[in-house]
């Protein structure tokens, strides 16, 4: 018996009946020989970690653009925090931690330079619009591995695609593991973005809405602890009632959504960061327009996409993969004079 089969047998014995057993995966787009050691979701996790797109997350903005302090979150550290929170919730409920980890590590892999500012620019410039979760799927299935994609399981891809939002109007992942990541993403970024905003002097502790802080906790650690425990216990209650979904209890979810709205108003879309947001959007837009006019300067891989899928798609794929630093470097190279010739 292979080690993988031993792990799969343990899953059957230890996991919640509504968790996703690796052996029961829907599968991949292209069939593969099974690994001797790793389950399918362990393989997916490793493929994501070793991808170029994952490595670029270390130089992509979370909220604060081009910060030189060591302690501000980047898109990569956000991803790690989501993974940690999600695995804790998943273990508490009794779900597949390997599937949770794979979804967590891949959930933001399609994000643009300069965070949602870059996403807004591409959404305005592209005829079909742009969203980072849809782009994450394109990266994982089309752009990585020299155009072959990573051939991930459908459970992982579904979790990545449906990690955004908390509204009932948006689609939910069909696995509980994917739904756990959806909540963990919000638990992570609302709290660590508050932490970073206070560190940057954009917010003060006393400005946080008391009606939400009194429910969730007075500091980042307390709030995450409250949210994680509530998500576990409330989901277990749901399952006992045959309501197979991940959720927070009413008061806790209202407090989380309230804090999230506060952050959108005062930080993400607030006036204090508007000047830097506008600079970032200007740079990314100019880089996009440059390659739209000079497509022959695109790397060969993206020129091939232009031939197959059109100019806008090829340029969008190239731009969306850029880190903050590479986007700035490209802007300087294309627009800033290096030498004055008389």
From TrEMBL:
<dbReference type="InterPro" id="IPR051094">
    <property type="entry name" value="Diverse_Catalytic_Enzymes"/>
</dbReference>
<dbReference type="InterPro" id="IPR006674">
    <property type="entry name" value="HD_domain"/>
</dbReference>
<dbReference type="InterPro" id="IPR003607">
    <property type="entry name" value="HD/PDEase_dom"/>
</dbReference>
<dbReference type="Pfam" id="PF13286">
    <property type="entry name" value="HD_assoc"/>
</dbReference>
<protein>
    <submittedName>
        <fullName>Deoxyguanosinetriphosphate triphosphohydrolase</fullName>
    </submittedName>
</protein>
<dbReference type="InterPro" id="IPR026875">
    <property type="entry name" value="PHydrolase_assoc_dom"/>
</dbReference>
<feature type="domain" description="HD">
    <location>
        <begin position="75"/>
        <end position="190"/>
    </location>
</feature>
<dbReference type="InterPro" id="IPR006261">
    <property type="entry name" value="dGTPase"/>
</dbReference>
<keyword id="KW-0378">Hydrolase</keyword>
<dbReference type="GO" id="GO:0016793">
    <property type="term" value="F:triphosphoric monoester hydrolase activity"/>
</dbReference>
<dbReference type="Pfam" id="PF01966">
    <property type="entry name" value="HD"/>
</dbReference>
């Amino acid at each position: 018996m292979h080690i993988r089969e031993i792990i799969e047998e343990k899953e059957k014995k230890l996991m919640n009946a509504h968790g996703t057993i690796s052996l029961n995966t829907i599968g991949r787009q292209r069939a593969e020989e099974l690994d001797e050691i790793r389950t399918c979701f362990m393989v997916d996790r490793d493929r994501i970690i070793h991808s170029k797109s994952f490595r670029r997350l270390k130089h992509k903005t979370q909220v604060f653009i081009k910060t030189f302090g060591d302690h501000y979150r980047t898109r990569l550290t956000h991803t790690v925090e989501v993974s940690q929170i999600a695995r804790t919730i998943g273990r508490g409920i009794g779900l597949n931690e390997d599937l949770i980890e794979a979804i967590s590590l891949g959930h933001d892999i399609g994000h643009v330079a300069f965070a949602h500012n870059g996403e807004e620019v591409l959404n305005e410039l592209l005829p079909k619009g742009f969203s980072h979760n849809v782009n994450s799927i394109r990266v994982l299935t089309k752009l990585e591995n020299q155009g072959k994609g990573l051939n991930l399981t459908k459970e992982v891809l579904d979790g990545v695609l449906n990690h955004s939002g908390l509204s009932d109007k948006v689609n939910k992942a069909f696995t509980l593991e994917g739904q756990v990541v959806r909540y963990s993403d919000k638990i992570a970024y609302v709290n660590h973005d508050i932490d970073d905003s206070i560190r940057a002097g954009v917010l003060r502790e006393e400005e946080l809405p008391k009606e939400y802080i009194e429910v969730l906790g007075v500091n980042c650690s307390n709030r995450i602890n409250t949210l994680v425990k509530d998500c576990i216990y409330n989901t277990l209650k749901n399952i006992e009632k045959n309501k197979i979904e991940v959720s927070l209890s009413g008061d806790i979810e209202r407090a989380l959504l309230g804090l999230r709205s506060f952050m959108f108003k005062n930080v993400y879309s607030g006036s204090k960061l508007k000047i830097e947001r506008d600079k970032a959007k200007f740079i990314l837009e100019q880089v996009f327009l440059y390659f739209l006019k000079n497509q022959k300067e695109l790397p060969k891989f993206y020129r091939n996409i232009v031939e197959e899928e059109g100019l806008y798609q090829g340029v969008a794929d190239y731009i969306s993969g850029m880190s903050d630093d590479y986007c700035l470097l490209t802007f300087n190279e294309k627009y800033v004079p290096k030498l004055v010739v008389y």
